[in-house]
Amino acid sequence: MEGFPPDQELVARLQDGDEDAFALVLDSWSGGMLRLARSFVSTEESAAEVVQETWLAVIEGIGRFECRSSLKTWTYRILTNTAKRRGTREKKVVPLSSAEDNGPTVDPARFRPAGVPFPGHWWEFPPAWPTPEQGLLGAEVREMLSAALAELPDRQRVVITLRDVEGYASEEVCELLEISAANQRVLLHRARAFVRGKLEEYYTQEVSS
Amino acid sequence: MNDLDCRQFVEQVTTFLEGDLGADAEQRFIEHLALCDGCDRYLDQIRQTTQALRDLPAEGISPAARANLLNAFRSRP
């Protein structure tokens, strides 16, 4: 992360009671933590409470933190544990696999069937998308993406949120969620294909309207 | 074109992007990619999708909760 102090320094400052350092991590991570918490519990309020509880645990435990993992991973682990406990209480648990994780991710009707020339190849190529303005997403696209994420099955949403929205490495995600690398990849793959499909829908509607 | 078809290609994009395909499968994937504009576009759109998600702004916690936590940090023993 640009402009972010290295972990050792950050931890030392937090242990010294440096308020600016605390405000920095609080402001940088709370948004992502809310998104992640929301995947485990049933309401926005619950998610906000999980984040609050997590930060209180961080404040309480930072004095004993020994940098064996990164500060962010440690914080996120507290968050997922807190969120899972609460999710269980609210009877919203994230099951590890389900029927939603099987089957093709692209509508089979888009490919040529057996018995015609070039079976298994596109009938028509996926339509081209408009080139986005450099680094800028329109508000409408952002809303559409958030809605698409909300529509995903929980497990897929947690994984794509951590990997693509928060930028975590696959090993970190497997560790946080206690899932295998193969399982993580399947969930990520299905989630990405779904969100790509939503973007395609959005862009083709935009062109035809 | 080799025996990898488009229907199989689209199911391998994530494994490819993760670098987990294995040498032989990766070779077939890349050969297909070089010859198929549809799959080239599909892969690019998956990349664009991940990029778009990366640019999603996060909503923060409420100002009251933030003030609360700053207070808690200040008054920690």
From TrEMBL, chain A:
Pfam short name (any one): Sigma70_r2
Ranges of residues in domain RNA polymerase sigma-70 region: 33-91
InterPro entries given in the database record: RNA_pol_sigma-70-like, RNA_pol_sigma-70_dom, RNA_pol_sigma70_r2, RNA_pol_sigma70_r4_t2, RNA_pol_sigma_r2, RNA_pol_sigma_r3/r4-like, WH-like_DNA-bd_sf
Record key words, sorted: Sigma factor, Transcription, Transcription regulation
Boundaries of every RNA polymerase sigma factor 70 region 4 type domain copy: 143-193
Transcription found in the keyword field: yes
Transcription keyword on record: yes
Domain of life: Bacteria
PANTHER family reported in the protein's UniProt record: ECF RNA POLYMERASE SIGMA-E FACTOR, RNA POLYMERASE ECF-TYPE SIGMA FACTO
Family: Belongs to the sigma-70 factor family. ECF subfamily.
Protein name (Swiss-Prot/TrEMBL): Sigma-70 family RNA polymerase sigma factor
Organism encoding this protein: Kribbella sancticallisti
Upper taxonomic lineage: Bacteria, Bacillati, Actinomycetota, Actinomycetes, Propionibacteriales
UniProtKB/TrEMBL annotation, chain B:
A Pfam match: zf-HC2
Keyword Transcription: yes
Domain Putative zinc-finger span(s) in chain numbering: 6-39
InterPro entries: Anti_sigma_zinc_sf, Znf_put
Annotated keywords: Transcription, Transcription regulation
Entry keyword Transcription regulation: yes
Record protein name field: Zf-HC2 domain-containing protein
